[in-house]
Amino acid sequence: MATTKKDIRALSKEQLRDFFEKQGDKAFRGNQVYEWLWQKGAHSFDDMTNVSKETRQMLEDNFVINHIKVDTMQRSNDGTVKNAVRLHDGLIVESVLIPTATRTTACVSSQVGCSLDCRFCATARLKRMRNLNPDEIYDQVVAIDNESKLYFNRPLSNIVFMGMGEPLMNYNNVIKAIDKITSPEGLGMSPKRITVSTSGVPKMIKKMADDDVKFNLAVSLHSAIDEVRTTIMPFNENFPLEDLREALEYWYAKTKCKISYEYVVWKGINDSQKDIDALVKFCKYVPCKVNIIEYNPIDDGEFQQASNEALENYISNLEKNRIVVNVRRSRGKDIDAACGQLANKS
Ligand code: SF4
Predict the structure, then answer these.
(1) What pLDDT is stored for residue 341 in this prediction?
(2) What InterPro entries does the entry give (predicted)?
(3) What is the mean pLDDT of the chain?
(4) Ligand 1 in reach of 124 Cβ (< 6 A)
(5) What is the pLDDT of residues 252-288, one digit of tens each?
(6) Ligand 1 contact via 339 beta carbon (within 6 Å)
(7) Do 59 and 87 fall into the same domain?
(8) Same domain, 138 and 262
(9) CA of 345 to the centre of ligand 1 (A)
(10) What is the pLDDT of residue 298?
């Protein structure tokens, strides 16, 4: 039966201190419990061994700890690890550990399914069921940090919000999760090692700039021509490139942080000189770099990776215009863990 008890991890440290005071206990007990929840990763009240049995029972009577559970874990031939994560209500999201020689990156989900409808993306086929809570996002990161230590003998070094969902459509919870990840009472990671990747929601990009966030911003651009972008990312009709450009200019004016554009080149869709010229022009509005990402086909075969010649053409045109460009080979393709492939198939 569904419980109506509140998830204790939705409480701030202050709220926990208040709770204990109202129970006639000492406020510092709240600090102790908070430490168990966030630094020691307690999964049950019984784990809190320096808290009295009566207090643990009282917590049990009032709260639950809705920890995520890694349901299945798959390892790719290239070392990539994909977790199918079960949430307290039985829904599943996926997160991925991507190792390279020098770093381990966690790619985490922010929603169950997605509210947007990018045609090349497997997640788009799952309708958005709900937003993830801050602790559900945080737990994905902790799970991957543990796997990184276990399999690669080093802690997690970077986080990208590029898993399932549009993070800016779950803005408040993503920000709360990042606060916890960067807090010394959480994982203490530098915000400079975190990248939020959006498909480009202009209003929310401006809000992030106003909120003076310290993490990096990436935009899944894929085309700098409205008609083409609307074909592959239909929400572009409501958030056209001119609005995106204005929001990005606002972001840069406030934060002075360069933007990364994520860009996949597809055969017959955005592989012409006209597409390249439009991207070069768009890149001149705001300091940026371009990440050209290898495409990972999903089942229907509608989208195909462009030829090497088309990719080379993109790279040489961008470099000629002094725009930094990286080519990202995809990882974890054999376990459907690569970009755009997350769809709860495991
Ligand atoms: S690419 Fe991102 S924003 Fe677009 S449908 Fe997939 S998960 Fe949603």
Answers:
(1) 62
(2) Aldolase_TIM, Methyltransferase_A, RlmN_N, RNA_MTrfase_RlmN, rRNA_lsu_MTrfase_RlmN/Cfr, rSAM, rSAM_sf
(3) 91
(4) yes
(5) 999 999 999 999 999 999 999 999 999 999 999 999 9
(6) no
(7) no
(8) yes
(9) 16
(10) 72
CATH of the domain at 28: 1.10.150.530
Mutate to test the pocket of ligand 1, among 93, 112, 123, 221 (most ligand atoms within 8 A of CB): 123
Mutate to test the pocket of ligand 1, among 120, 125, 166, 170 (most ligand atoms within 8 A of CB): 166
Mean pLDDT confidence for 33-48: 90
* Residues 109 and 47 placed together within one structural domain of the fold: no
Q: Return the HEC string of the chain.
A: CCCCCEEHHHCCHHHHHHHHHHCCCCCHHHHHHHHHHHCCCCCCHHHCCCCCHHHHHHHHHHEECCCCEEEEEEECCCCCEEEEEECCCCCEEEEEEEECCCCEEEECCCEECECCCCCCCCHHHCECCEECCHHHHHHHHHHHHHHHHHHHCCCCCEEEECCCCCHHHHHHHHHHHHHHHHCCCCCCCCHHHEEEEECCCHHHHHHHHHCCCCCEEEEECCCCCHHHHHHHCHHHHCCCHHHHHHHHHHHHHHHCCCEEEEECCECCCCCCHHHHHHHHHHHCCCCEEEEEECCCCCCCCCCCECCHHHHHHHHHHHHHCCCEEEEECCCCHHHCCCCCCCCCCC
pLDDT of 340 reads 61
Q: pTM score, two decimals?
A: 0.90
What pLDDT score was predicted for residue 337?
Answer: 62
Counting atoms of ligand 1 from 1, which one is nearest the CA of 114? 8
Are 51 and 162 contained in the same domain? no
- Per-residue model confidence (pLDDT) at position 330: 67
CATH number assigned to the domain comprising residue 247:
3.20.20.70
For residues 40 and 182, membership in a common domain is answered with no
Is residue 218 within 6 Å of ligand 1 at its C-beta?
Answer: no
pLDDT value at residue 303: 87
Active-site residue flag, 339 = yes
